[in-house]
# Entry
Amino acid sequence: MAEKIILTGDRPTGRLHIGHYVGSLRRRVELQNSGGFDEIYIMIADAQALTDNFDDPDKVRENIMEVALDYLSAGIDPEKTHILIQSQIPELTELTFYYSDLVTVSRLQRNPTVKTELGMRGFGESIPVGFFTYPISQAADITAFKATTVPAGEDQQPMIEQTREIVRKFNSVYHTETLVEPEILLPQNEACMRLPGTDGREKMSKSLGNGIYLSDPAEEVKKKVMSMFTDPDHLRVEDPGKIEGNTVFTYLDAFARAEHFAEYAPDYTDLEEMKAHYRKGGLGDVKVKKFLNNVLQETLEPIRSRRARFEKDIPYVYEVLKKGTEAAEKKAAGTLEEVKRAMRINYFEDTEWLETQIRKFSGQDGRA
Ligand code: TRP
# Structure
């Protein structure tokens, strides 16, 4: 049976927040522990982070360890999953260069993620080539490991689509089956897909100050929850409230499980009952927020306490990164070798090449 391989990653531009957690990290841990995969790679995509942070390399550098700590604390187990640092695997850069022969400028311009991000970053006419072409580099990340499965958020869909196109083009142009078409594994529900900031805005981000981080202390999580955006028209407890666009309920959609109700809100059997009460009137925001706080604390507490342990043993985390990167490089080198063979640039690995050249220049191949 064909191998099942996971590759996914994050840009190290900050600590990971609960949007990362429900969007992908929680799933990666489940998949890792399911035992259903032959190999699992998680990449700290520092080279990709530099494509739009090249002027702030220390930000990227400082967040390598933060993201590694977030991974380990969330339950990524280095016995089962290789954690790797992208920039330390030169094979990925080499693959990117060769794949760029197979991609047109207009195709990159049509990539929806590139389009939105270009708008967000305000490069104007001065778009760095490295940023513009990062989908090609991401295709290298994914195909270098022959990944079949990429657990990631919806925003990554166009990257996976572009990767699949590169794979198809490569395999057909070079008459080979070297590269593997990956599939994206999206989050299970809408709330996990796009967890908004605590202020109700679309994206959780450091600059907006609207994020809850995996490494936030309990008190801080509580403070952030108690000041969250709800239904601005729900003024008195007895008023009917709205669920749509109500951030507290969106978070509950992403985090609350049946056990949480039994333990912290036994008046309700599930979220639907709680929502119905809120809609009807008679359920106050403070009560719902306190429940959400309990749910989040129960989810984050084990992550926090594991982090505290790993923070006391940074040399161990360093070793995890080093070993994970070494294992990953081995795999990527194998793929690069196959790619070079398919593209006919493997002169010194191909003993026949010398022979054919000798024959050709001695006139024995009938050319003379
Ligand atoms: N582009 C991803 C992000 O912004 C990070 C990333 C880099 C990635 N390489 C990847 C994700 C390969 C999945 C697969 O979060």
